[in-house]
């Protein structure tokens, strides 16, 4: 409101305001109209991380609410849109398959997975053995996997057990097993479909159709050219959201809601397909018939009497450096192209704008007010072009710099789509390497203080296999023997005692059924602990990096700490309103630190969101089970 009043105080004429609008000066001419539709539009642009920057909360309360909404809402909205996109793509593929069958008279058959599942369920005598335990689960999943030509790991079996056990009984009945098995087979089929090169073609066709629809509708609603409309659609669906084009009418905002909700999921699957295609190509190029590398170096440690594979310890680090070099090279190439395409146009446009400003008869006070908003050639120097390329492929898109030529915009659309796929791979490598490093550091610290070290997923799987080998053939085992075995495996005594007490009937002896229930409980509790640990580590790192870099931006940009923290969060979530942008471009150190913050913060945040998904799913199952026990929940279950 203060900025709008300051603008009004300049007493610009109608002709001068028209010139200001045409020249695109970055001035606040009026306060945002926060009516219901505009507010809903702001919320969705924020939760989808598009963040055009045309509406920005200015109060501390508004920013606090935005922080909470993004922290809780981005994973939820993102998941819903990805799921919606998956169903749209499956519907499109089903329609395409049906039309192909009609044209070529193809006879469709049931999926091989579900044929095998039905055969497996019918083959088992459920009257004699109504419950499935961990070892039974491994046998059945391994049998199903072998018949389909794939393999199954113990970690997958443990994760299957955790996901399938809805009632917390540490075993599976017929209904639980069938539902979980169908979901497992469906996920494997989807993964196989995504790994197919044909899926990229199908999704690209669907995305092209959706972009054409957006081009026609937004062109009619906003009076944009076809090229401007298609540019807006690509920048929106990739969540870059520069803000140089944004819906302004009520009709276009209403259509924007539907367009983004459907198109976001389609674009997400398209980018995922590109990412998988790049990963497949890189894997074939690097791993097929490769010479011996660090991964194959072995070193025996005689003091412990076992062989350590040193290459495995550094393999994630090697992948991280490989991805880093590749993404830096891609950003440098993009910066060179953007600088070449836009710099000459910026120089000519600056001279034209200066001439127009000189002819508009602005007063000295008006020119002094407009001077900070004048475009400069600094926008397309190489350092600024590199920052623009990084903000584009990370989908932050502050909007302080945008391409103005058709050539630059065409290159941007292709560059962004390919770059986002590369950055997705890079973020996964950053998160994996950082997580491994943090776990290693924490294990060392715990050993120094005489505490038990943290258990990794590989060590957890080894523990499950060893304990099953010891307990599988035993008809019964005493509680003391079970606790002794657990202590040898490095388990926490209190936690293990609670798990034993949950399955022991009080006689101090565990029979074979109780042993298998104990193993099931062990798997569920340990996997849940690993999930909480992974989420906690990444959440802590997100907070630490935000707080640390907020301090840096407080010094380098002369912001207060709250403003710097706001900027760090809006950048980390890739919303990028553009209300605050680092201006420390005089030194290379400022640019380097800004890019470093962006890369590592996005990597940790992406891993934090990814690790929160199983926790949210477990919480949903618990809430659903609790609601099902209520009187109205049981009544509702009769009709569902």
What report would you give on this structure?
This protein is mainly α and 640 residues long. Among the domains are: 215 residues, Helix Hairpins; 181 residues, Orthogonal Bundle (Helix Hairpins). It has 22 helices and four strands. The strands form two sheets. A two-stranded antiparallel sheet has the order 1-2. Strand 1 and strand 2 form a beta hairpin. Helix 6 packs across helix 7, helix 9 runs antiparallel to helix 11 and helix 19 packs antiparallel against helix 21. The radius of gyration is 29 Å and the shape is elongated. About 4% of the residues have low confidence.
Sum this structure up briefly.
With 640 residues, the protein is mainly α. The chain has helices at 2-8, 14-23, 36-47, 60-104, 112-123, 134-147, 154-164, 174-195, 197-222, 226-237, 250-287, 310-358, 364-370, 382-393, 406-448, 457-471, 479-488, 493-503, 512-556, 561-572, 588-628, 631-637; strands at residues 299-301, 306-308, 476-478, 509-511.
Q: Report strand %.
A: under 5%
On the 0 to 100 scale, the average pLDDT is: 73
Q: What is the SS-derived class?
A: mainly alpha
**What's the gyration radius in Å?**
29 Å
Sheet with the most strands? Answer: 2 strands, antiparallel
Shape: elongated
What is the CA-CA span between the terminal residues?
51 Å
Which fold name fills CATH's third level, the topology of one domain?
Helix Hairpins
Q: Spell out the helices and strands N to C.
A: HHHHHHHHHHHEEHHHHHEHHEHHHH
